[in-house]
Amino acid sequence: MPRLVGPTAPHRGEGRGSSHSRRDASGNKTIKEKNKEKRERARDSSNSNNLSSKTSRENLSSRNNSSEKLSSKTSRENLVKKDSKNSSTTANASFSAKQSSSSSTAPNDASWTPPLWLTKVKPPHRTRNLTIPIPPVPADTRKAIQKYIEKQQPPYHKQQAQMQLLQNKLKGQKEKAKLAQKKLDKLEESKAERIQEIKVMSQEELEAKFQTIQEELEKEHAAAAKAHEEEWKQNTEKEAKAAKRQYKKEQAELAEKDREAHQQKVQEELELQAKQAKAKDDDDDKDLLPSQKLEREHAKVKEKLDGLKETKKEIVWLLKQVINAEKKRKAPEPHMPPKKKQIKL
């Protein structure tokens, strides 16, 4: 009877140490490793089913073998009894003959050692095996044994049919498991592709949102910079106008002060010259004639007129300077664009 033996080879994932130890850089298992683990679990479950079916088959085969052994054992024992009777008679006769011959030929010396075939203890290197030819079991006895076994145990053909059904079921389950594994792999691949597509789409959406936000911020920044620049221009223009007015006012005040100081200085010099001339005239009048006195007075008057003309010219020049400064102050100022400052943002 053939014995059905299940698969005992190790799984593909065992012995390599890759599926349980392989992990990505972040510490999480990849999709392929998860699929391998699922396959290994399915194989383990199928192997356990195979082992259970194997044990049931071995039990059935052991029962059948035990029945066959019993039948063959009984037939062998009968044959051995017959052969043992014949061999015992021949062995006794040969042993008595040998003993008589050895007693007649052996010397009376104590150093004599019997041969090995006479000793009871056999050497370990010369073991003997007894082979008994057993004739084939007759068909009648075989049928009788089969009937007896069928009476004692359930019929074998039913067990065989059940085993065949179980095998067919197991094959169908294996095929279903393979198909399910293929479907699962396809689903995992489609899932990974879909996740990748979703990642790409989300990345594109994020980039578009980031671009719009960046454009809005740039517009707001440009508007704020423009407003700040206009405000700065207005403030600088106001400050420049105020500084220019203050400068013109200060210049006019300084010119007025210089004019007054110059007039005062000229007047003091004229007074000093007049005093000196009067004192000199008083000294000279005592010694001069009346005609000479008149000439001297005429020269003095002429000198005074010349001094007055010079002072008049200076006063006119100062007045012209003041008038020009006042005209420049009242005239409209040309617009000078202020220098742009570099704004660090």
UniProtKB/TrEMBL annotation:
Name by which UniProt lists this protein: Uncharacterized protein
Residue spans of biased composition, Low complexity class: 45-69, 86-104
Region feature (Disordered): 1-138, 219-304, 325-345
Compositional bias of kind Basic and acidic residues: 11-44, 70-85, 219-268, 293-304
